[in-house]
């Protein structure tokens, strides 16, 4: 089944006569007989009703759908994208173990590893997006964790090379796949063991829910599954239901985000206020060849590097925008602007120079209206 069809037809097993499955909210699950209760305790966690914390029918619908969309066996939903990342990292951490993270990994996940996990005796190291990781792997390396393209700097990684180096030593590679979504990115086909999504972004698509999703084979998911069980990371059935609904329109939304983002990016390249547009979907981008190899599309968001300007000019630009709201996150139907926070760039070997980095999420508005909005804000700047 093509992804577009799967998005429409999967995840409706418990719908009965309705088109959409109802939300099942539960803490307590009751059983008819002792034998059924015992059987549930021996089943795989997060795959069947046991206790609310390991999910309800709504959770399982979403998890089965997501595993199928990613072409793998299992999925676990978590409270947020960050909770999914920290669960994967913590499940592979421990005294004497070594975690190798790409420098462009989502900032709060890196901070979590460098504080909480390092404090408990895990060695945390980072590598640059264009580095050959072969010599960075150790006998104690338990996980390589990447995000492509990198948050904010939009640098691409050579995932095939990274997976080949890691798998030669039996080390799993986890990848934050939020930007590509299952519509444009097939992480497991490239050799990724664990794929992580902030479903808060494109999958939810409406800026009204937080959710994380982790997918992989049953074997690859085993440590993550036990960690999630022990730590109580839990996605609410309501958030899972909203993500299922978001999936129905994901393919059309992604193609429209891509079309509009490309139009806005090309227009930005003609502007004197803009030094560089960082978007792997552009032929001028240094990551374009890798993007073409690994992705079948690009929804955005992307970043721009401005020509050097004063703080006051920068404030006039951001404050002058009417259609781009100022806020964290992306992936919703509405356009957003965010000044790139230096905190997220820490440790990158190729820091952009003095020009300010700004991240744009191009929503589902008309491309011409968005360019007009940017033009009038540049004029105020
Ligand atoms: C937003 C984001 C996250 C975190 O997701 P939350 O649901 O906000 O915790 C993780 N990874 C990437 C790439 C993100 O953009």
TrEMBL record:
Catalytic activity: L,L-cystathionine + H2O = L-homocysteine + pyruvate + NH4(+)
Domain of life: Bacteria
Naturally occurring in which organism (per UniProt): Pseudaquabacterium terrae
GO MF term set: transferase activity
InterPro entries with a match to the protein in the record: Cys/Met-Metab_PyrdxlP-dep_enz, Cys_b_lyase_bac, PyrdxlP-dep_Trfase, PyrdxlP-dep_Trfase_major, PyrdxlP-dep_Trfase_small
Stored Gene3D superfamilies: Aspartate Aminotransferase, domain 1, Type I PLP-dependent aspartate aminotransferase-like (Major domain)
Cofactor: pyridoxal 5'-phosphate
UniProt entry tagged with the keyword Transferase: yes
Protein name listed in UniProt: PLP-dependent transferase
Keyword annotations of the record: Lyase, Pyridoxal phosphate, Transferase
Assigned protein family: Belongs to the trans-sulfuration enzymes family.
